[in-house]
Amino acid sequence: MSMSFDRYMRDMIQPMRDELTNLGIQELTTPEEVEAQVANAKGTALIVINSVCGCAAGQCRPGVAMALEHAVVPDQLFTVFAGQDKEATAKAREYFAPYAPSSPSIALMKDGELVHFIERHSIEDRSAQEIAAELTEAFDRVCK
């Protein structure tokens, strides 16, 4: 019995996608979806670059989940999956200049402009609670 690599990856990755989509975060899987949602986003938008790496599971996704329990949150919530939805991720990263591509990472935008960015190196050595604290401070500053 053999399973295709693509199917295997989809099955393995789906729980990682679900961790964010179950929070009400809209997954963008094509460059066209990114362009339609991010380029035209009014108000505030959170964009999570999801990843299979351990720091995504141990700190990033749990930190985002904790932050979204805060009283003040962005108007819109999006995610793309690095290494899986490559073209969508590349399109999303166009909005994060001058930051180099990193995954996982978290962007906060206001009216289409990047206002706060958490790179991988600021995720991998911090706890989920520390990431949530940084996000909630940014939410309070930008999303009110």
Tell me the count of domains. 1
N-to-C span: 55 Å
Q: Sheet bearing the most strands, described? A: 5 strands, mixed
Order of H and E elements? HEHEHEHEEH
> What is the H level of CATH, i.e. the homologous superfamily?
Glutaredoxin
- Can you tell me the CATH class? Alpha Beta
Mean pLDDT: 94
**Proper CATH architecture:** 3-Layer(aba) Sandwich
Shape: globular
- In DSSP terms (H or I, runs of 4 or more residues), the helix count works out at 5
Helical content, roughly? Answer: 40-55%
Strands in their spatial order, largest beta sheet: 1-3-2-4-5
Indicate the low-confidence ranges by residue numbers.
none
Helix/strand-derived class?
alpha/beta
How many runs of DSSP E, i.e. beta strands? 5
Q: Which oligomeric form is depicted?
A: single chain
Question: Which percent band covers the strand fraction?
Answer: 15-25%
CATH topology-level name: Glutaredoxin
**What is Rg?**
15 Å
Textual characterization of the structure:
With 144 residues, this protein is of the alpha/beta class. The protein has one domain (1-143): Glutaredoxin (3-Layer(aba) Sandwich), CATH 3.40.30.10. Helices cover 43% and strands 19% of the residues. It has 5 helices and 5 strands; from the N terminus they run H-E-H-E-H-E-H-E-E-H. It has helices at 5-21, 31-38, 54-67, 86-93, 128-142, and strands at 26-27, 44-50, 76-81, 105-110, 113-118. It has a 5-stranded mixed sheet with strand order 1-3-2-4-5, sandwiched between helices. Strand 2, helix 3 and strand 3 (76-81) form a beta-alpha-beta unit. The longest helix has 17 residues, at 5-21. It starts with a helix and ends with a helix. The mean pLDDT is 94.
